[in-house]
Amino acid sequence: MRIVTLPGDGVGPEVTREAVKVLTGVCDVHGIDLSLEEHLVGGTAIRNAGSPLPRETAEACSAADAVLLGAVGDPEFDNLLPEQRPEIGLLKLRQVLGGFANLRPARAVPALMDSSPLRRDIFEGTDLLIVRELLGGLYFGEPRGFRNDNTEAFNTMVYSEDEVRRVARVAFQAAQNRRGKVTSVDKANVLETSRLWRQTVESVSKEFPGVELDHLFVDACAMHLVTDPRRFDVILTENLFGDILSDEAAVLTGSLGMLASATIGGPIDLFEPVHGSAPDIAGRGVANPLGAIASAAMLLRYTGGHETAARSIEDAVASVLDEGYRTPDIARGSGENIVSTEEMGSHVAKRAADNSRSGLAYHAV
Ligand code: NAD
Ligand code: IPM
Ligand code: MN
């Protein structure tokens, strides 16, 4: 597998380093041929190459099997126009790679029941998958801009049937391999794009008679996510709603630092934790690397088809949490062992490699 890593800004490099450590270890044991190439993106790319997505980065990513990204975003550039900011590097990259379905799984972790501000009886057993449309909607709609001497600003929310259909199919297929339920989330009581979204999802659902479909308005969905999250299996939604709902869903896992994502459907897959560059904690070695590490596991699963290797990482994360290791964001109770980003990565890397070795030995028998 040819992988391009884009550590990016803030905690991005800190968590990506740990994800790469775990990935390399597991690939070694499994004999998976892995080549890694690091490139610039985001604020660090603006500083060092004059653009948030330098051409060299885009070309390297286009020639890779998959891209593993840390995070972009830097307060130094916060006052710039959207098209000059680090975030545009990520948005352009998503367009270049072409993946339109962003999968964001959120599971309640048994070892982290006390790390969430939610009551255990509300969220214990939650296991949901947000399928977020990633290349359409307000993020990319034209026209956009400022007018009337910068006293007005406007964006365009636009979706075509084709854009909705292709991401809906991904959601229904995912549901077939899970608990067979899709909840489509929109604002069809107000928005035309949502009316089209709902009709199109309804028509796609006929291709999947075994999957149950229901619809929620996004405001109600936001409420149900924290009052009755077990009602959800697959949540299918458009770009901006998915962005917001996935940070909310992170509360169910204990921390935003836990959430991983895979972007599939296009020529080149993209894997990134859901969180951002976390400037408030960057450079201190305290960021939670588990979202980035779980994104590397998704890379093995979705791009490589290496299910056993992916599982060995996910099982390692569960074991390390069972043993009480915590980065500060998921530390709550007593009897926990607070570790740095790097220590957490090393614990997971060791167990993942051990799991892989014993798994391989088991298969050999
Ligand atoms: P953020 O996700 O960076 O941080 C939100 C909160 O969660 C902060 O308190 C942060 O400390 C905490 N947090 C995030 N990741 C963590 C981790 N791994 N471990 C422990 N705690 C963690 O969101 P923000 O503060 O709204 O945005 C900061 C910058 O990141 C902005 O420039 C934004 O545009 C960018 N951003 C980038 C991405 C991405 O690259 N995919 C995603 C979201 C935000
Ligand atoms: C995310 C981020 C990005 C998004 C930003 C940084 C462009 O918030 O991946 O969730 O809004 O998609
Ligand atoms: Mn986001």
Would you kindly provide a written description of the structure presented here, covering whatever features stand out?
- It is a single chain.
- With 365 residues, the chain is α/β, with parallel strands linked by helices.
- It has 2 domains: 209 residues, Isopropylmalate Dehydrogenase (3-Layer(aba) Sandwich), CATH 3.40.718.10; 136 residues, Isopropylmalate Dehydrogenase (3-Layer(aba) Sandwich).
- It has 12 helices and 14 strands.
- The strands form 3 sheets. The protein has a 10-stranded mixed sheet, sandwiched between helices. The chain has a two-stranded antiparallel sheet with strand order 6-7. Strands 13-14 form a two-stranded parallel sheet.
- The protein is globular.
- The chain starts with a strand and ends with a helix.
- The mean pLDDT is 96.
- The structure holds nicotinamide-adenine-dinucleotide, 3-isopropylmalic acid and manganese (II) ion.
- The site of manganese (II) ion (MN) has 2 residues, from helix 9.
- The site of nicotinamide-adenine-dinucleotide has 22 residues, from helix 4.
